[in-house]
Amino acid sequence: MTIDVALIIKAIIILLIFGITLLIAMYSTYGERKVAAFMQDRIGPNRAGPFGLLQPLADAVKMFFKEDFIPSQASKWLFILGPCLSMLTALMTSAVIPFGDSVKYESAPGKVWDIPVQAIDVNIGILYVFGVVSLGVYGIMVGGWASNNKFSLLGAIRAASQNISYEISMGLAIIAILMMTGSLSIRHIVEQQHGGNWNIFYQPLGFVIFITCAFAECNRTPFDLPECETELIGGYHTEYSSMKLGFYLFAEYINMFVSSAMISSLYFGGYNYPGMDWVQAQLTGSLGEIAGHNVGTLIGTLVFFAKSLFFVFFYMWVRWTLPRFRYDQLMNLGWKALIPLAMINIILTGGAILFLKPLIVSFLK
Amino acid sequence: MRTLIDFVQRIFKTNMVSEFGTIFLFIVTAIVLIVSMLMLAKLLRPHKPNVEKLTTYESGEDPIGNANVQFNVRFYVVALVFLLFEVELVFLFPWAVVFGQATLIQQTDGLWGWFSLVEMLIFVGILVLGLAYAWAKGYLDWVRPQPKVPVIETKVPANLYQKVNEKYGRPSVNEK
């Protein structure tokens, strides 16, 4: 009974990715409260542990120990299925994110494994993320409908309508990226942005469209109409309590992290940073081929997390800066502003690739 | 046990099917995690339901009627227009991948890029016509509540008050 070392490492990577995603989602709740406190000139959670660092654990314990009601009018199984679907789709998306370059491991002399720091590199990575994110609305829809509560139903319908409206412009923004890269694999897209050659410099309009849609897809302020507390009590999760409510809230924070990771992979070079070739050369020079490569990968991964966490912070920053949209404004922005803009972006990208690029190349010659 | 390991190893081989095998394992792990968290919570939490606790929440009042209320038909129209564009997106994904391929452009002397761009423009153009139609017909406008002006039957012409106000100015709060 011999199991490949590569297999073990792969399994460890899968569990590690789950662990890291959940940990980041947990500490995003802490971060959200601290950022909110900072922006409102308060202290924020500071009782559990030093600087309140154990607060997420205390919250989790509370979620576990709270009594769970299933309203007598609700459809019981759909009521349970809703938050589970939401959580499942949120967890599934992190499978294809390239967290770092690759880890090299020498199992026998001359036999070097090269294992990418990514659960799986499918050649249709972006389509996978896009598809799973689209499924995310079912969790909200099922939960909101099964609650048999008027507020929940309105929240669920709003969520469905909002998500499908912004999905289109998000897809169109992604298509402009694909036209440049010619690959659906997220790892290829990241590798093409080697060093400081990031897509944001070629796709500024696409980036603005993408980030707006990411806010809407995650139901974050200023697009948090499905759960806006001043109109709909709690929106789609009005009837939820205990761990099921925890799933909905947790799924939102995981979605935030995953979309931040997507933004940094698609537009900000993922684990690439300016001067990485020089750093890599120094490391392999001083530490040797394999160890140097691994340390370089570690630095790249840290850079990736720094970028992603900045965007998580950006979500919170925007939450305490912008007020909520009205529903007709939301729909107007989605259909009458973002979709035409995204179409224009595609045409501009096509023109730039066909006309501007040969011109610049011939000029540089 | 032996066959299980074989199965897991086969999933991890480096071809396309096995890549989705890993995603399958990922999904299984996620489901196990979710179910175990729900089960653990069920074991730990108290369970003392009563009629009051189990009523539907409606701002503290007893709920009136069923929750399956009528809602704005615009949601349905939006879903229909969405369907149109989502299908368009699905067709654009493969187009976007082959659009910028250097070998194809080289083989056709740059003609490929222009040809595929024009082709895409015609395809999207037809669909944009659909969006323009929906836009012009006002299907994308959300219905806003229109203020109802009450009709009062009186012999005094409606603009008389206006004229009086304009002539004498509106009394402000401070001068009463």
Principal-axes shape call of chain B:
flat
Per DSSP E runs of 2 or more residues, the count of β-strands of chain B stands at: 0
Q: How many whole angstroms does the radius of gyration of chain B measure?
A: 33 Å
| Average pLDDT score of chain A | 84
Largest sheet of chain B: none
Quick one: how many beta strands of chain A? 2
Q: How would you explain this protein's 3D organization?
A:
The complex is a heterodimer of chains A (365) and B (176). Chain A is mainly alpha-helical and 365 residues long. Chain A has helices at 5-39, 55-65, 76-93, 125-146, 150-181, 186-191, 204-217, 229-232, 242-266, 276-287, 289-319, 327-364; strands at residues 102-108, 111-116. Chain A has one domain (2-364). Chain A has twelve helices and two strands. In chain A, helix 5 (150-181) runs antiparallel to helix 7 (204-217). Chain A is globular. The longest helix of chain B has 29 residues, at 16-44. Chain B has seven helices and no strands. Chain B has 176 residues and is mainly α. Chain B has helices spanning 2-11, 16-44, 51-54, 74-99, 102-107, 111-136, 159-168. The model of chain B has no long low-confidence stretch (mean pLDDT 77).
Notable traits:
heterodimer, A: 365 residues, mainly alpha, 68% helix, 4% strand, globular, B: 176 residues, 7 helices, 63% helix, flat
What is the gist of this entry?
Chain A: It is an enzyme of class 7 (translocase). The complex is a heterodimer of chains A (365) and B (176). Chain A has 365 residues and is mainly alpha-helical.
List the SSEs and their pairings.
The complex is a heterodimer of chains A (365) and B (176).
Chain A: H1 5-39, H2 55-65, H3 76-93, E1 102-108, E2 111-116, H4 125-146, H5 150-181, H6 186-191, H7 204-217, H8 229-232, H9 242-266, H10 276-287, H11 289-319, H12 327-364
Antiparallel strand pairs in A: 1-2
Chain B: H1 2-11, H2 16-44, H3 51-54, H4 74-99, H5 102-107, H6 111-136, H7 159-168
